[in-house]
Design a protein that fits this description.
single chain, twelve-stranded mixed beta sheet
Length: 218
Amino acid sequence: MKHGLMLAILTLSASALSADGERFAIRGEYVEARTCAVWTGSCFANGEVNLMGKNAVVGWSVTEGSWDGVKLDGLKIAAVLNAEGTLHTKYEGKVTSVVYVDKKATCEQRKALTSMARALAPDHMGNVTKMVRTEISFTRKGIEATLTADKEFQVKTEAICHCDSTSCHAYLFYPAVSKATEVESAKAVANAYQGDSLGGIRWSDPDRQSAMVGTFAK
């Protein structure tokens, strides 16, 4: 009887742990920087629509977890986006992306990372024109984050200053490109792309309230 009771308790405990563990398969850090203000008032945002915000750098750094049964702890993936019009507006049009995959990832892990990014950003990662294996650096401490890949792109964020946060009824005007993601607005101290994979399109758009920093869990 005692043995049966102990077995029942262990079974219930294992089920509880399993249910708790299945709340997410994977989680990590996320950063995004666009070529328009994302922390802004609607009047300013509408003034930029279809003039700015056609490009973005997005990046995921896996803290722990698996995708498609493949462990991805510590690996990173990023992308640069190019749209016909302002992202997340009716003018967005066709969006193409160049994907940068962690050089440390195996072939199996590269496939899983790409699948994860496409699942998290299905609206903007459906048309990948090029995939690059490279060393990706991603660090984050609170709202301060850096994302770089060799000489291709650089994003560096910091907190939005008080004067910017209280002016013009500013708020996070756009959602993040990545779904299943919680973000805060940030200032992009650096937001640059110097690669040659977007048909000659490059940018450097620093010191703008154009970034988002947060976490993802799926």
